């Protein structure tokens, strides 16, 4: 009693849609965070090598990823 091909393709399509939606929400959250901080995080991290800014951005991305994951999964 396995899944038929139609159900499998539908589930695959849903997985792709939710993955793209999750990535877009994560990206939008990061861009909003970057806009609200008084510094340009990309410049601080990559040009100046500021480890503290990288840790702060990474922690924020992980937090947003948890929130997006919980909101998408239900």
Key terms:
single chain; 74 residues; mainly alpha; 3 helices
Summarize the structure.
This protein has 74 residues and is an all-alpha fold. The protein is 84% helix and 0% strand.
Task: Give a written overview of the molecule.
The structure is a single chain. The protein is mostly helical and 74 residues long. It has one domain (18-73). It is 84% helix and 0% strand. It is built from three helices and no strands. Helix 1 runs antiparallel to helix 3 (51-73).
Fraction in beta strands: under 5%
Number of discrete domains = 1
Whole-number mean pLDDT: 89
> Helical residue percent?
over 70%
The biggest beta sheet is recorded as:
none
Shape: elongated
Q: What is the string of helix and strand elements? A: HHH
Distance between the termini: 27 Å
Return the structural class: mainly alpha
Regions with little confidence, pLDDT below 50 for 5+ residues: none
> Can you count the helices?
3
> How many distinct beta strands?
0
Radius of gyration: 17 Å
């Amino acid at each position: 009693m396995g899944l038929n091909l139609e159900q499998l393709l539908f589930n695959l399509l849903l997985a792709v849609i939710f993955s793209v939606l999750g990535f877009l929400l994560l990206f939008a959250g990061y861009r909003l965070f970057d806009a609200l901080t008084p510094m340009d995080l990309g410049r601080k991290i990559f040009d100046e090598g500021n480890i503290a800014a990288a840790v702060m951005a990474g922690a924020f991305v992980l937090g947003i990823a948890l929130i997006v994951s919980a909101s998408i999964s239900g």
